[in-house]
Each structure stands twice: as structure tokens, then as C-alpha cells.
Amino acid sequence: MRQSDEALTVLQPSNWKKPKGYANGMMGRGRMVLTGGLVGWDENEVFAHGFVPQVEQTLKNIVAVVETAGGGPEHIARLTWYVKSIPTYRAALGELGAVYRAVLGRHYPAMALVEVSDLVEPEALVEIEATAILPD
Asked: How confident is the prediction along the chain (136 residues), in pLDDT tens digits per residue?
């Protein structure tokens, strides 16, 4: 069962330029949902082929975990992305925006993205951790 859709509050200093596709900070009150680092495989641990399809599957996996707790994409307060290649990420920005909106809508939580030398799963091109705050 989904909880109420009480919104998180975006924290944006008034004199800062508004970011595109992420928030500088989020605030909420309620139950926290913390995911592990999720990767772009399906429920049978079969990887999607390519960076953008893996991102899409990873985001779907995050939503599935949050929904298990009774929440939805609008409750995600933070995403931390670990990618094997920043140039691959940058080259895919147009496609990523469409995939992101298809899975998470126009909800943009606080985000960080870092390049890592490797991930535990050899086929993984991206791993994402999420923090969600579900209203009490």
C-alpha cells in the first residue's frame, strides 16, 4: 500500500542558480528507506545490454525497493551514482534524461555521481544507491 504523497522539500539557496536534473538538497520527515548499491540487472540477475539500458533497469530496481516499503519515486530524496565511465555518462545525457523521466518522472532528488575504477559485478556499468523518506 502506498503512503500519502506528502512531498519532500527541495532545499535551494535563493541566490544560487537552479540546477537542472537534480536538487542541491532535500528535506523530509518520516521513515527512511536505504537501498544497497543496485545494478542494471533484472529479477533473474540478467543484465541489460549497454549503459543507458542498465541505468533504466537500475532506476526501476530502486523504485521496486521503495515501493516494497510503501513509497514511490516522489519519496526518493537522494541518489548516489557510481559509473565506470564519466565520458560514457556525458555522451548519453540526452537519452538518460528521457529514461530518467520515464521511470522517476520529473522528480529530481539530491544527487552525486562519481566515476569508479570497477564495480563488484563484472558486467555492471553503473551502480546506484538511493535514500527515500516516506511520510509517517
From this structure: 334 446 799 999 999 999 988 999 999 999 999 999 999 999 999 999 999 999 999 999 999 999 999 999 999 999 999 999 999 999 999 999 999 999 999 999 999 999 999 999 999 999 999 999 999 8
Helices (H), 1-136: 51-68, 86-91, 93-104
Indicate the pTM of the whole model. Answer: 0.91
SS3 string of 90-125? Answer: HHCHHHHHHHHHHHHCCCCCEEEEEECCCCCCCCCC
Angle, CA of 136, 103 and 134, to the nearest 5°? 5
Q: Assess contact for 1 and 92: CB atoms under 8 A.
A: no
